[in-house]
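Following the same procedure, backbone shapes were mapped to integers, yielding the entry below.
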Amino acid sequence: MSDELKPRSHVLTNGRNRAAARAMLKGIGFTDEDLARPIIGIANTWIETMPCNFHLRVLAGKVKEGVRKAGGTPMEFNTVSVSDGVTMGTEGMKGSLISREVIADSIELMGRSYLFDAMIALVGCDKTILARRWATAAERAEHHFVWWLDYARSVARRRCDHSARLRGDWGGGSRQNVR
């Protein structure tokens, strides 16, 4: 494959002096064919601590399939995310605003370190959306952005309805009154 299709990652994967890098990547399942294709970073803000990003693990699998079908090699990585809704009123809330910068820095760091030819960012909440924007503004690779809001809303709605019902039950009210 020409360096034209691998404008950045060829530096990481091509040539005799990159044999050790290729060996490490092969050690986790990549093949020579995988490494010959453009390498696409998949920045996934999936996290199991909040409903707005919880669904992104499933979406990442579909995105990676699409990258492979288009002739690229996906390499997924994750970042942190802090939920205002979960941490509100606790010491943990102090980390919420800071988390945007950590997310942005981690996405940019991965793009610069692994020389991805392009990146796709999967985000679901206000902090991860903004952080993704900051990171892609700083990084030189082509970027794409996926925000699966409709699914995120339905997951969040189910979880919030459940939470409201529990509060109603515990507070002496009935489920019918809470809705």
User: Anything to note?
Assistant: The two ends are 58 Å apart (CA to CA).
